[in-house]
Amino acid sequence: MASNKDYFADEVGVLSPNQLQVDELYAGEVGYLSASIRSVADARVGDTITHYDRKAESSLPGYEEATPMVFCGLFPVDADQFPELRDALEKLQLNDAALKFEPETSSAMGFGFRCGFLGLLHMEIERLEREYNLSLITTAPSVVYRVNCVDNETVECSNPSLLPEPGQRRSIEEPVVKIEMLTPKDYIGPLMELAQDRRGEFKEMKYITENRASIIYELPLAEMVGDFFDQLKSRSKGYASMEYTFIGYKESELIKLDIQINGEPVEPLSTIVHRDKIACMDCECDGRKVDVLALMVGF
């Protein structure tokens, strides 16, 4: 109902556990429907299906369309693999309606795609490389920032290269999440240190059991989309777990970092970082570790 598309149902049935075709599905039954739906966007998970001639008055409650929160650029190392990358993303999208992608071009990196993902655990680039035998260059992950301009207009920006010029913007807001880390008490210190290093704001800690604690922080989503989960597992020897929820936007001292290669700026490598982290950064570029001097633009 949300997509407002209509299709002819070729087959309906139930799982018992194999697919078993039936003539009709009745209220309260759990079953499947087969139709010639060519786009996953026309039948997203959680949407309501109703009869064409006897439409329901309203959709079932609780449906919300998945909105990408994390973005990055994907470029094939071998330019000839661009068609294969496009096909791989299209196949991946069949199983994941939250995935969004659009073509992106760079004079330095060639043809690629700007991809939007649902969250940090969702950004499994290794799956593309492993299942589709691709060698990829991944740009720094980014989130959706809100830019408050001097003309009182608010612009949402997920691509750092499209950030309004310094003279046009008044402030930048970044998405903030509440994260709860569950950990054995032996790893409380290392995990609190991790959250503090990622600009986290401590909120609460409580013991669930004698040996297990819950630690709650608020921190920028941008600090989580990289290696936060890997670091959490590493510092807790694999025993800690986490979950997070989006709570809103918060103004912060953010600036744009441009990276130049051979004196030429490479827009896909641009990123937005906090002022406190701008002095000198290490950047992983095409498998080589290089020291990148920050070029500050604006704030």
UniProtKB/TrEMBL annotation:
SUPFAM superfamilies cross-referenced by the UniProt entry: EF-G C-terminal domain-like, Translation proteins
Q: Does the keyword Zinc-finger apply?
A: no
Where is the Elongation factor EFG domain positioned along the sequence?
171-259
Q: Which UniProt keywords apply?
A: GTP-binding, Hydrolase, Nucleotide-binding
Q: Which GO terms describe its molecular function?
A: GTP binding; hydrolase activity; ribosome binding
A Pfam family per the record: EFG_C
Gene Ontology BP, a term: positive regulation of translation
**Record's PANTHER family?**
TRANSLATION FACTOR GUF1 HOMOLOG, CHLOROPLASTIC, TRANSLATION FACTOR GUF1-RELATED
Similarity field: Belongs to the TRAFAC class translation factor GTPase superfamily. Classic translation factor GTPase family. LepA subfamily.
Q: What is this protein called?
A: Elongation factor EFG domain-containing protein
Q: Which organism is it from?
A: Gossypium schwendimanii (Cotton)
